């Protein structure tokens, strides 16, 4: 399993009203608030912690956790600027965050040793359904190319918990995959299964 | 639906307008309409909506109440409970 979350920092800088009264208290614990307030780039730190929470929450849902909306219940710990963990009650996950000029993203996984590929791409589309269709198309093209299988035989749909499920010849492939988009950017994180079912 | 509930729903609709990325779901707003799944509101923007609700109705929504606000109906319930407790 893997959870991911990408933040378009350009968009975030325009739309984050973090100085509104009680904004920080509604999303962040006192220690997280301190990290944000003491950072030289508070907005980037705020979204760094947010993407940790969001990617960890996705993993929590994939593990059968019940949906909730109280981000303070997801506690972040940072070991370094890029590596940390999140905790939701007794549930824990390891996180890794990568920041570039225009975006940052986090991935969350249960096992520190597990390796996944993450690919950032620019999204296209005028509305949410077009953007979503573009992301699906992009991911299928990416994975089918990598596996040297025809993209027409792949499908991507959503599970009850909202996690993407990759299908090949109408059969679900047991592969960890997570998808996120925000503003101009999309992010897919995945592991290609070996041996791949149905592959000659 | 009582008149006042309708008015609250209308106020909620106006608050959500700038954040909802799916205008058709907003036009057919029901109590079961979920903020993230149906209105395609970015989860990071939910807090802005909560803060706008606090300002509009002059109430304070604690984190436990926020936790319950997954759809329009549960948001209306929280608003009514907070107004009644004022």
Structural class category of chain B? mainly alpha
Gap between N and C termini of chain B: 22 Å
Give the C-level CATH assignment of chain B. Answer: Mainly Alpha
The helix content of chain B is 55-70%
Low-pLDDT stretches of chain B = none
Number of domains of chain A: 2
Overview of the structural elements:
The complex is a heterodimer of chains A (200) and B (86). Chain A is an alpha+beta fold and 200 residues long. Chain A folds into 2 domains: 3-116, Alpha-Beta Complex (Ribosomal Protein L22, Chain A); 119-190, no CATH class. Chain A is 31% helix and 31% strand. Chain A has 5 helices and 11 strands. Chain A has helices at residues 9-15, 23-27, 30-38, 42-62, 128-147; strands spanning 3-8, 75-78, 83-88, 91-99, 103-109, 117-122, 154-158, 164-168, 171-172, 177-182, 185-190. Chain A has a 5-stranded antiparallel β-sheet with strand order 1-5-4-3-2. Chain A has a 3-stranded antiparallel β-sheet with strand order 6-11-10, with no helix packed on it. In chain A, strands 7-8-9 form a 3-stranded antiparallel β-sheet, covered by helices on one side. In chain A, a hairpin with a 3-residue loop joins strand 4 and strand 5 (103-109). In chain A, helix 3 runs antiparallel to helix 4 (42-62). The model of chain A has no long low-confidence stretch (mean pLDDT 92). With 86 residues, chain B is mainly α. Chain B has a single domain (3-84), classed as ACP-like (Non-ribosomal Peptide Synthetase Peptidyl Carrier Protein, Chain A, Orthogonal Bundle), CATH 1.10.1200.10. Helices cover 58% and strands 0% of the residues of chain B. Chain B is built from 5 helices and no strands. Chain B has helices at residues 3-16, 23-27, 46-57, 63-68, 72-84. In chain B, helix 1 (3-16) packs across helix 3. Chain B is globular and about 35 Å long. In chain B, 29% of the residues are buried. The mean pLDDT of chain B is 89. Chain A binds chain B through residues 7, 15, 17, 20-23, 26-27, 50, 54, 67-73, 127-129, 162, 182, and chain B through 21-22, 37, 40, 42-48, 50-51, 54, 60, 63-64, 66-67, 69-70.
């Amino acid at each position: 399993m893997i959870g991911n979350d990408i933040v378009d920092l350009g968009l975030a800088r325009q739309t984050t009203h973090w100085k509104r009264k009680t904004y920080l208290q509604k999303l962040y614990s006192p220690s997280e608030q301190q990290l944000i307030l003491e950072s030289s780039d508070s907005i980037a730190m705020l979204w760094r912690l947010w993407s940790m929470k969001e990617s960890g929450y996705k993993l929590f849902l994939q593990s059968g956790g019940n949906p909730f909306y109280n981000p303070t219940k997801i506690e972040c710990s940072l070991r370094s600027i890029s590596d940390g963990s999140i905790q939701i009650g007794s549930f824990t996950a390891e996180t890794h965050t990568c920041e570039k000029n225009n975006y940052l993203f986090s991935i969350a996984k249960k096992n520190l040793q597990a390796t996944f590929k993450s690919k950032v791409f620019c999204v296209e589309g005028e509305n949410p359904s077009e953007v979503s269709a573009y992301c699906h198309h992009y991911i299928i093209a990416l994975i089918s190319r990598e596996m040297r299988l025809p993209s027409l035989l792949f499908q991507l749909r959503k599970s009850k918990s909202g996690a993407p499920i990759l299908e090949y010849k109408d059969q679900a492939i047991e592969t960890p995959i997570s998808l996120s988009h925000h503003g101009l950017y999309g992010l897919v994180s995945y592991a290609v299964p070996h041996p791949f079912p149905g592959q000659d | 639906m009582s008149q006042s509930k309708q008015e609250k729903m209308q106020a909620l609709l106006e608050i959500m307008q700038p954040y909802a990325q799916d205008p058709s779901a907003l036009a057919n707003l029901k109590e079961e309409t979920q903020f993230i799944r149906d209105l395609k509101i970015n989860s990071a923007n939910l807090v802005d909506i909560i803060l706008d609700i606090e300002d509009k109705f002059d109430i304070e929504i604690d984190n436990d109440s926020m936790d319950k606000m997954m759809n329009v109906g549960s948001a209306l319930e929280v608003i009514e409970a907070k107004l009644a407790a004022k």
